[in-house]
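Entry type: protein chain
Record version: 2
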Amino acid sequence: MPEQRRRALAQANAVRRARAHLKRDLQTGSVELAEVLSAPPPFAQTAMVRDLFLAVRGIGPAKADRALTRCGI
């Protein structure tokens, strides 16, 4: 496997791990969704907003879709 591809895979895996950690923090309430949306960390800048909404306890698909529609996203 070429070195460039190996580095890209390692970086993609690091981003996935960081996003999973962020979603766990959103679910436990140790991080507020508003904080993440107002100043997203680099690994979350390309994340799907709906996925972040769904990570928050008490927000399901219907509430997430309503919020995104209201925001015009």
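Comment: The chain has a mean pLDDT of 95.
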